[in-house]
Every structure is written in structure tokens, then in C-alpha cells.
Design goal:
- By secondary structure, this protein is of the alpha+beta class.
- It has 3 domains: about 1-75, RNA polymerase II/Efflux pump adaptor protein, barrel-sandwich hybrid domain (OB fold (Dihydrolipoamide Acetyltransferase, E2P)); about 85-165, no CATH class; about 180-405, Chloramphenicol Acetyltransferase.
- About 35% of the residues lie in helices and about 25% in strands.
- The chain has helices at about 85-95, 100-105, 120-130, 145-155, 180-195, 205-225, 230-245, 285-300, 310, 375-390, 395-400, 400-405, and strands spanning about 1-5, 15-20, 30, 35-40, 45-50, 55, 65, 70-75, 160, 165, 195-205, 250, 255, 265, 270, 275, 280, 315-320, 340-345, 345-355, 355-370.
- Strands 11, 14, 17, 18, 19, 20 and 21 form a 7-stranded mixed β-sheet that branches. A 4-stranded antiparallel β-sheet has the order 1-8-6-3, with no helix packed on it. Strands 5-4-2-7 form a 4-stranded antiparallel β-sheet, with no helix packed on it.
- A hairpin with a 2-residue loop joins strand 9 (about 160) and strand 10 (about 165).
- The termini are far apart.
Length: about 400
């Protein structure tokens, strides 16, 4: 019998949460096959079978386990089952034979999502009357929708909200995940530790939007990735960080550590919570490189495939609340960094341009910073520089006006 133990995933991590079993107790597993998913305070990772055999689970989903605890056992002496697929084929044959009888009652079920449980009659009424299952309050066992539930929803339109009756007093209690506990702890630590202050500015996004409109198809054809806003902001921040070193630094005891490189963390919202993967050496990457990295890291974050290395480090953070409609916010510093830039919603606003009112595509930007390291002059100047670079995208090539570069001014 081989024991599968919770592996070491990081120096500071002492416990993990068992998210789910991908193989069930008593099931035969092959060597290196994924048997479970674990979540630490920083990332989600998979556990593989060390040998082929029958799996014997030693923990339940949702359990908190310490590093080194026995997660499961594998009986490598158990014979591999043979002829297992045969029974599965039999029901298909039966279903095919009985198809004419069952087809009428089965057909309406396609009107409800796979994750909604209903009785056949309820499913038929839902499909026929085109009722939204989310607007039905289920009364059956395990949340199953019954015929009377559908009829009640039809008889009382507008009396059910978000799947629950009006004036509902129901409550739901969920255990905090390891990731959510870490997010909560880090945010509170940041607020309690840093002397945090936020400065604001606004950017005319028209020039960037014109570039994207003109070159997006050619960019996609050439580089195989969409031209988004994040590459413009990342490159603008990289140039500004190299000019204002304190914004790219952090405190280490009685010392300030400065960086000659820009490892920019990108805040990514996932169903499990907020993760902040890092794009290394942004100052040395092309626009296409940045866009590829953003797509790669965002995809890994959503699929819970980020490695510890991709989450560690980072000298500065960019967060985009604009994708959710945020017009203005004060982002919280991602410690131990000293600053974070907040992007927001692009909105048409009337602006006074050379004595005339013009409608421009405007975005508020915010820089939250640690006043222990960064003074007001540095923070405001950094944000003004970011604004200048974004409103004049050609400056992103050299960091200054091409004509002035040509004339060595």
C-alpha cells in the first residue's frame, strides 16, 4: 500500500484545503493520473498518483490538511479491472430500443440547463412556457424543481427574485477558502502597515482607442493576439517606474530596496477570488509580448493553473476595475510593494479643449502609494507621466518625443 501525502508547496505554507477528488474512492487509477486538487493560500495545484492501483481516499472535500498528512493510499497490488466499458454500452442499447416511447417526455428536458434538477413534468412545462429556471423556487429534495413550483412561478410572475421568494429570510454559511482567507489577511495587513494615500488623474483615451481601431486586425494577424489596453498601461508604467524609482521600491526593515527592472503584477478576478500573477521585465518586452503574457496568465488564473513562481515577486501592480464598470476607486497596495495603479471605466465626458467643449473618451486613473517611501511630488509626477505617455502613445517607443530624440534635445 502506497501513501500519497500532502506535498510541500512553499516555505511559508503549512496547510492546504482539499478542493475536490478527481478520482473517487475505490476507483482504479493509472500512474501519474491526477487524483485530487488542493488549494494553498497562494495557488491551486494537482496531486498525481505515484503508482497505478486502487485509490483509497483518506480525507473529505473541504478538509484542511497539514503538509505531510496522508491524503490517500493506493493499493498497487490490486488487479486492473477488465471489461469495464461493456456495462456502460448496455444502457445505451436499451435507451435506443425504447427511444420511441421515451422521446416525447425526454425532449422538453433540453429546455433546462444541465445543472438544474427538475422532474420530467416540470421540465416539460418549463420548456413549453419558456420559464427561466432561475426564477423558480425549488421545493423538492436536493433543490429539485417540482411541477407545483413551476405552476406557482407562472401564477405569480414577478414574485420571485434571484431564485428565492420576496421577503425570504434564508441564510447560507460557507467556510472561507484558504485563498479568501489569505486575501483578507493581506488586505488588512496592507491597510494597517502602510501609510497609504491615493492620488487621482484622468486620461484622454482617444489616441489609444484610435490606434486600436486602426491596427487591431493587423496586430491580431501578425502576432496572434488582440491589442488590448493593458499593454499600453504596462509599458507606460514601466517607463515611469524607471524615472521615479521610489514607486518601484519597497521597505525591508530599515532599508529601501530599489529595482532596475519592472516586474508588474496584474490583478485577475477569478471565481475563487483575486489573484495577482506577475509579468517579468515589462520594460524589455514588446507590446505583443505583454499581451501574450496577459492572456496566458489570465487563462491560468481562471483554470487554477498558476504556479507559485508566477504569483511571487512583483515590484508594482496594475488593477482594472473598469471591466466591471467602476468609475473611480482607491486600490489597496499589494504588499510588500509600495504602489498600485487603478484603471477605470472609459466614459464619454465633455472636456474644455482650447476654449471649446469637446466630447472625449476619458478614464480616471488612481495611484495608491505608501507615503513612508513615496512623497507627494514623486507620486503625482509619476501619475502625470503615465497620463502623458498614454495620451501620446508614440512616446512609448523612446520614452520621449521622437522629434526631440532626433534633434537630441
Amino acid at each position: 500500500m502506497i501513501e500519497i501525502k500532502v506535498p510541500t508547496v512553499g516555505e511559508s505554507i503549512s496547510e492546504v484545503t482539499l478542493l475536490k477528488w478527481t478520482k473517487q474512492d475505490g476507483e482504479y487509477v493509472e500512474r501519474d493520473e491526477v487524483i485530487a486538487e488542493l488549494e494553498s493560500e497562494k495557488a491551486t495545484f494537482e496531486v498525481n498518483a505515484e503508482q497505478a492501483g486502487v485509490l483509497k481516499t483518506a480525507a473529505q472535500e473541504g478538509d484542511t490538511l497539514n503538509i505531510g498528512d496522508v491524503l490517500a493510499q493506493i493499493d498497487e497490488t490490486a488487479p486492473k479491472p477488465e471489461g469495464k466499458p461493456a456495462p456502460a454500452a448496455a444502457p445505451k442499447a436499451e435507451a435506443k430500443a425504447d427511444a420511441p416511447k421515451t422521446a416525447p417526455s425526454q425532449a422538453p428536458v433540453t429546455g433546462t440547463p444541465n445543472d438544474v434538477k427538475t422532474t420530467p413534468v416540470a421540465a416539460a412545462i418549463i420548456a413549453d412556457k419558456k420559464v427561466d429556471p432561475k426564477q423558480i423556487s425549488p421545493s423538492g429534495a436536493n433543490g429539485k424543481i417540482l411541477k407545483d413550483d413551476v405552476l406557482a412561478a407562472l401564477a405569480n410572475p414577478g414574485k420571485i427574485t434571484n431564485g428565492a421568494p420576496l421577503f425570504s429570510r434564508e441564510e447560507k454559511r460557507e467556510k472561507l477558502s484558504a485563498l479568501r482567507k489569505t486575501i483578507a489577511r493581506r488586505l488588512v495587513d496592507s491597510k494597517n502597515t502602510a501609510a497609504m494615500l491615493t492620488t487621482f488623474n484622468e486620461v484622454d483615451m482617444g489616441p489609444i482607442m484610435d490606434i486600436r481601431k486602426k491596427y487591431k486586425d493587423k496586430f491580431k494577424e501578425t502576432h496572434g493576439v488582440n491589442l488590448g489596453f493593458m499593454s499600453f498601461f504596462a509599458k507606460a508604467c514601466a517607463i515611469s517606474l524607471n524615472e521615479w524609482k521610489a514607486v518601484n521600491a519597497y521597505m525591508d526593515g530599515d532599508h529601501i530596496v530599489y529595482h532596475d527592472y519592472c516586474d508588474i503584477s496584474i490583478a485577475v478576478s477569478t471565481p475563487r477570488g483575486l489573484t495577482v500573477p506577475v509579468i517579468r521585465n515589462v520594460e524589455s518586452l514588446s507590446m505583443a509580448d505583454v499581451e501574450r503574457k496577459v492572456v496566458e496568465l489570465a487563462g491560468k488564473a481562471r483554470d487554477n493553473k498558476l504556479t507559485m513562481e508566477e504569483l511571487q515577486g512583483g515590484t508594482f501592480t496594475i488593477t482594472n476595475g473598469g471591466v466591471f464598470g467602476s468609475l473611480m476607486s482607491t486600490p489597496i497596495i499589494n504588499q510588500p510593494q509600495s504602489a498600485i495603479l487603478g484603471m477605470h471605466k472609459i466614459q464619454e465626458r465633455p472636456m474644455a479643449i482650447n476654449g471649446k467643449v469637446e466630447i472625449r473618451q476619458m478614464m480616471y486613473i488612481a495611484l495608491s502609494y505608501d507615503h513612508r517611501i513615496i512623497d507627494g511630488r514623486e507620486s503625482v509626477s509619476f501619475l502625470v507621466r503615465v497620463k502623458e505617455l498614454l495620451e501620446n502613445p508614440e512616446l512609448l517607443l523612446f520614452g520621449k518625443d521622437p522629434v526631440q530624440t532626433l534633434l537630441e534635445l
